[in-house]
Amino acid sequence: MKGVWRRRNLLAGLVLTAVILAAALVSLVWTPYPPTAIDILHKLAHPSRAHPLGTDPFGRDVLSMIMVGARNSLLVSVIAVALGAGGGIPLGALAAARGGWVDDLVMRATDLAFAFPALLTAVMITALAGPGAGNAMIAIGLFNIPVFARLTRGAAMAVGKREFILAARAAGRGDIAITLDHVLPNIAAVLMVQATIQFALGIIADAGLSYLGLGTQPPQPSWGKMLNDAQTYIYKAPLLAVFPGLAITLAVLGLNLLGDGLRDLLDPRLRRAR
Asked: Is the separation of the CB atoms in 197 and 255 below 8 Å?
C-alpha cells in the first residue's frame, strides 16, 4: 500500500509540473491576450468568458500574465539550478576525492556562502548592476552552489567506502577517473532529487525577489510582481492575489511531490521495502 501512495505522489507531481510547464511553453506562441496590453475600460474585471481569470488594475488579462509569468519563473529557476549544480557538483566531488586541505577549503567556502542568502546576495548584486531577472538568476544560483557542493561531497564520501571503489583504487585508477566513472554515476539519483527541490525553492526565491522589485522587471509579468500589485486591491479584488499565489503553490507542490516520488523510485532501499 505504501508503494501505491508513493507512486501516486510521483504521478501527482508529474501532472502538476506538466501543467505549469505546458502553460509556460504555450505562452511562447499563444496567450489569450497580449500580456502587456492595457485596457483601462475593462480594468479589475471579474472572471468571465472573455477573461477567465479577470483583469488587473490596468486591464491586462490575468490568465495571459500567469502563463507568461510561469515561463519567466521557470526560466529563472532552471538557470539558477544549472548554475548551482554546475558550480557545486565539481567542487563537492573534488573535495571528496582529494580530502585534506582541499576538502577543508571547499567546506569553509560553502560555510561562508551560506552566510549570504539569495535575497541578501540579490540586494548586493542589484546595488552594483541594477535589478533584473539575470541578477536574480545569479543570486539564486550562487546560493545553490554550496547546497550542491555539500550534498555531492557527502554522497561521494559514502560511495567512496564501497567495495567497487576500493577495487578500482587497488587496480591503480586515479581519483579523478574513479570520480567520473564510478562515483558520479552512483550519486546521480540523489543529485537529481535535490535539483527538483532546489527548482521549487528557486521558484519561491524568484517570486520573493520579484515581489521586492529585484527580479523580473515590468512590463514583463512575474508571479511575485503580480502579488505585489494585488496587495493594494486586496479588499476590492482579492482574486488578483489568489491566482498568482495559487500558481506559485501548485508549481512548488508539484516539484516537491515529484522530488519525493523520484526519491522513492530511485532509492534501492525503498524499492526493497516495497
From this structure: yes
Domain boundaries, the chain: 2-33+50-273
User: Cα separations (Å) of 147 from 140, 215, 236, 266?
Assistant: 11, 22, 42, 20
Identify which of 70, 83, 2 has the alpha carbon closest to the alpha carbon of residue 35. 70
Ramachandran bin of 159, using left for φ above 0, alpha for ψ from -120 to 50, beta for the remaining angles: alpha
DSSP 41: G
Give the pLDDT of residue 124. 80
State the cell numbers at 260.
519525493
Q: Which residue has the cell 531577472?
A: 133
**Positive or negative: CA dihedral 187, 193, 197, 203:** positive
Integer Cα distance of 101 and 273 in angstroms? 40
Span between the terminal Cα atoms of the chain, in Å: 8
Q: Distance (Å, rounded) from C-alpha 38 to C-alpha 145?
A: 40
Amino acid at 255: L
The whole model's pTM is what? 0.90
Q: Please tell me the predicted confidence (pLDDT) of residue 271.
A: 52
Neighbours of 56 (CB within 10 A): 22
Residue 90 identity: P
> What is the block-wise mean pLDDT of the chain (274 residues), using blocks of 10 residues?
61 93 96 93 93 94 96 95 96 92 92 80 77 88 93 92 83 83 90 94 92 88 94 92 96 93 70 48
The Cα–Cα gap between 178 and 164 comes to 10
pLDDT at 249: 96
- Identify the CATH homologous superfamily for domain 2-33+50-273: MetI-like (1.10.3720.10)
